[in-house]
Amino acid sequence: MKTLFHFITSIILVMSMSLNAQNGLSSAEWQEDLRYLQNIIHKEYPILFKKTTAKDFDAAVEQLYNEIPSLEAHEIPVAFARIVSSFLYGHTQITFSTLAKNGVLPVNLYHFSDGVYIEGVQKAHEKTLGAKVLKVGGMPVEKALTLIRPVVPAENDYYFKGYGLRFLTVPDVLHTQRVIPELSDTITLTLEKDGNVFEYTFPKIDLKELSRGYLYTIPNDTWISSRALDKTPLYLKYLNDKYFFFEYLKDSKTLYVRQSTVVNHESETLKDFYNRLFDFIDSNDVEKLIYDVRLNGGGNNYNNVHLIKGLMARPSINKKGHFFYIIGRNTFSACQNLTNEITNYTEAILVGEPTAENVNFLGDNRPERLPNSNITAYLSYAWWQDKPQWENRDATLPHIAVDMSFDDYINNEDPIVHAAMNFKNDGDFILDPMAHLTQLFTERKYDQVKSDGAKIAKNPQYRYYDFENEFSKAGNRLVQSGNLQAGHFVLELVADLYPESVSAIYSLANVQEQLKLTDKAIVSYKKIIDLDPKGSLAIVAKSRIEALKKQ
Prior knowledge:
By secondary structure, the protein is an alpha/beta fold. It is 41% helix and 16% strand. It has helices at 2-18, 27-44, 54-67, 75-85, 96-99, 141-148, 157-164, 171-176, 270-283, 305-312, 334-345, 406-410, 415-421, 433-442, 446-458, 467-480, 484-497, 502-514, 518-531, 536-550; strands at residues 107-112, 115-122, 132-136, 139-140, 186-193, 196-203, 212-213, 216-217, 223-225, 244-249, 254-259, 288-292, 323-327, 349-352, 361-369, 376-384, 400-401. Strand 12 (288-292), helix 10 and strand 13 form a beta-alpha-beta unit. Helix 17 packs antiparallel against helix 18 (502-514). The radius of gyration is 27 Å and the shape is globular. The termini are far apart.
C-alpha cells in the first residue's frame, strides 16, 4: 500500500504541475502562449529592441519556457509580465489589473520624500492610516521594492515611484518575486506611526474595491485618506469632476492651471478650454502663469498644439520668471510630448520632480491577446522623437527640484506651487546648468567652469541631474573627437568633484596616459586600487601601472 500511495502521489504531483494555471491551462498551453508572444514580438514589434537586445530577450524566454512546468498557477502571469516589462517602456506591459485579478491589499501606498506611507486605507484598518511602511512580510521595504521592480514596465525611477508602487500590494506579485515565502490571502506589514513600531496583517480584497485616482485615495463610505479634508490644495481640487481648470490668485496676479489629462472632457474640449484660458489671460492682469501637469498621464498629443500656439503668441507671459510648468511622477505619454514641446518652444521654468517617461519614447501600443490564456500584452509600435537623440534622457528634469514630504501632504501644503509662487531671479539662477558650463568652456573661462561646476554639483536644486555622468560624457566626447587637452580638463574636474568614483578616476587616468602624463596616470590608477581593490577596474589599473613603469 505504501508503494502504491507514493505512486499515486507522484501522478497527482505531475498532474498538478502540468495543470498549473488559471482556467486549467496545461504547461504546454502556457508554453505555447509564450512562444506566440516571442514570435509576434520578433515579427511585428522589433522596434522594442532598444534597451534590451533580442539575444537577452530570447534567453529570458527560454528560461521561463523551461520553468513553466514547475511554477504555480499565479506565478506564470507575473513571469509573463516580467518578460514584457523587460523592454522598459511604460506603454509596453501586461496590465496591473491582470496581475491583481486575484486580489490586492486594502491600502493605498505613496512614496513621499521621507519614505513609503499608507496614504489611504479601508476604514476597517484605520489604525494603520498614515503609518510609514518599514517591512513587507518581514522584508525591508527597500529590498521588496527592488524585487518587484522587474515586473513593472518602469521607464525610469519616477515611473516606478508613481505607477509601480501599487504592485507592492499584490500578493501574487509578492510571492512570485520572493518578497514573501508562500502565497497567502493575508500579508503582514511592519509599520511605524507616532513613534511606535508594530505589525499589522491585512487581508486581501477584490481589485474593484479600490478607491483611487491619480495615485491618491478617493475618500468614500469605505475608504479614508490621511490628508486633512478641511481644505483642498490647488493640485487636488475638482479631481473627480474636472480634467482641467484654472483659478486666478488675485493678490499675486497669478493664474494657476491644472491639466490632468490630454483628453477632451465631455463638457469641454481642450481646444475650447485653451481658448477660454487665453481669453482670461488677455482680459486680466496676469503676471505669472503656473501650469501644473504633475498628475497628467497622457491622452492624445494632437491636442497639444493649441496650447503651444497660444503661449508662443503671448510673450508677456511666455518669458523666464513668469511662466512655470510643474511636472512629476505622473507626467507620462502624451503629456511627455507636451512637456517636450514646452521645453522646445517656450521660456517655462520647470518645477517639481522628473517625469515618468523618457524624453523620446515608444508609445501607441496594440493589444495582443495570447491564444490560450487570453492574457493581453500591450506592445508599443510607434517611436516618438521630439528631441534630437543627443538630448534624450531617461526623463525630463525640473529646473527647480522640489518634492513633497508626508507632513506636507497631510497638512495640505504644496511646496511645489510654493516654489513657483516665490521664485525670484536674483541673477544666480541657472536654467540649464550643462548649457551654462558649456558656454563658459567655449568662452575659455576655465576658472569659472571649475567654481560654477562645484557649486552646481552640490546644489540640491539640481539634485535630479546626474552631473558625474553628464560631465563624464562631455569629457569623453572631447577625448573621442581628438581634443585631448579639453577632455583632460573636464575629466579632471569630474575626478575632483567625485573623488570616490573609480569610473571618473579611470577616465582621467586613461586620458592622462594618452597625453603622456605618465606619473599622473600612475597616481590615478593607484587611487582606483585604493578605493576598490577587488573591483574589475582595479585589475585593469594594476596592469596599466605595470605597463607604464616599463616604458
